[in-house]
Fold each of these.
Amino acid sequence: GDSVTQMEGPVTLSEEAFLTINCTYTATGYPSLFWYVQYPGEGLQLLLKATKADDKGSNKGFEATYRKETTSFHLEKGSVQVSDSAVYFCALRRSETSYDKVIFGPGTSLSVIP
Amino acid sequence: NAGVTQTPKFQVLKTGQSMTLQCAQDMNHEYMSWYRQDPGMGLRLIHYSVGAGITDQGEVPNGYNVSRSTTEDFPLRLLSAAPSQTSVYFCASSYTWHTQDNEQFFGPGTRLTVL
């Protein structure tokens, strides 16, 4: 069945460090891929998305490229800030005959220290 | 727009009690869903709805009921609470259900503890 695998962390970085959070997926067909972010005490919110192979999603300095050949969608940011401390979820969404199937990864907790 | 709202934010129940978690959205979204979030397991789909009067089961539906009498509201009912239902519950909505790149909008969550 469909699945999303991501490094669980926790990941601790110093401010201005480079961030990579790995995400790989298993799915039939051509899913859309998403990164959601959950700040402490809040619900998830969309960070970025990509809908087809080689698409790059970007937002707030974060980027991720849809790599179909490696079934990956790794999240990167060149210089993290304390305000980026949150839990990051990789997800895929694939349309089926009756509903959209959305699969979330387990989440990666990021702490950025000054 | 208030977006997706959930009440209550926190709840403690005793085993066997029933309760309803409320969810409402004011964006005229077609698709609404309930997830539970447990450590190390990400979000798991409990129930979903593709429109008023239409609901269906997700990945972990046992012990929960839903109904969708209006486009705006999608309550989740716990029939007889069990400690295994201790979790954080999120309601989410999206504009439509049949376009796979649609963003989901999440409520702030309800933290439920069953003793």
Amino acid sequence: AQKVTQAQTEISVVEKEDVTLDCVYETRDTTYYLFWYKQPPSGELVFLIRRNSFDEQNEISGRYSWNFQKSTSSFNFTITASQVVDSAVYFCALSEAGNQGGKLIFGQGTELSVKP
Amino acid sequence: KAGVTQTPRYLIKTRGQQVTLSCSPISGHRSVSWYQQTPGQGLQFLFEYFSETQRNKGNFPGRFSGRQFSNSRSEMNVSTLELGDSALYLCASSPPQGEKLFFGSGTQLSVL
């Protein structure tokens, strides 16, 4: 069965601190996709990254970076020098290749609060 | 390009009633998916439509149904509402390559 676990329910940091959001997944498929989405108070989920199971290269985009490790089934997300605007709920999600894109299995989300 | 549009934004219903939610995908997107978000269960997949056909379905009772029209707009219907149906219902569309989902702002349904 597929499952995504985000053990951190809430994280609070002070602006400019680095913060890492953890994501652990379970799947029997060898081909799958991992995602991170951000949900600000407006409710709309904003896409951050998609990674396929064959690409274990870490990725950096500005202050955001992602560490994908198949050996530990983890796909962690780090925000460097956090800002107040980063406050939101962050979701990690899994999609198996056979699902043709529309079905994501989401973790419970991590609520990040960045204080000035 | 306009994003995914969901109407209405807020809805209040009473138990036993039925409700219809609407979703207009991004132009050119043929896949529309629906999700239910609650504090207890988190984000759960309801169903996906592609070219007017249901392509995938989550584990929800038959009271939850949907459809897609030829212009890719989609509706979701919940009959015989229960208190536990109170949730944020999110719609998402994806492009032909299906690389990612684009979400709307959701419809907040309250069942009293």
